[in-house]
Write a structure and sequence with these properties.
By secondary structure, the chain is an all-beta fold. Helices cover 0% and strands 51% of the residues. The protein is built from no helices and 10 strands. Strands 2-10-9-4-5-6 form a 6-stranded mixed β-sheet, with no helix packed on it. A 4-stranded antiparallel β-sheet has the order 1-3-8-7, with no helix packed on it. A hairpin with a 5-residue loop joins strand 5 and strand 6. The protein is globular.
Length: 114
């Protein structure tokens, strides 16, 4: 069984920064791709950033240049450094493992005030 636990969300003013963490545990083989998604109220869940097993990264256009995804030394922890936050970044942020449709964390709320 695989568990994903996110942390680091909170309330921040526009222009501020937050760092989200996601720790994966359980029956995981190798170094899986990991990603962040977000879901704002009344909207569908959307892709934010992904890091491949080899360390290559991709970002949604809306966060390029502001957000950075990275792995911890344990390789099964992933971070999302979010800078220059905007009110439209307000959402619940979810961690995803291995591009799976079923392996999600519980989510962490990020609220950016104007």
């Amino acid at each position: 069984q695989v568990q994903l636990v996110e942390s680091g969300g909170g309330l921040v003013q526009s222009g501020g920064s937050l760092r989200l963490s996601c720790a994966a545990s359980g029956d995981i083989f190798g170094i899986p791709a990991m990603a962040w998604y977000r879901q704002a109220p009344g909207k569908q869940r959307e892709f934010v950033a992904r890091i491949s097993s080899m360390g290559s990264t991709t970002y949604a256009d809306s966060v390029k240049g502001r957000f950075t995804i990275s792995r911890g030394n344990a390789k099964r922890t992933v971070y999302l450094q979010m800078n220059s936050l905007k009110p439209e970044d307000t959402a619940v942020y979810y961690c995803n493992l291995g591009d799976s449709s079923t392996l999600w964390g519980q989510g962490t709320q990020v609220t950016v005030s104007s």
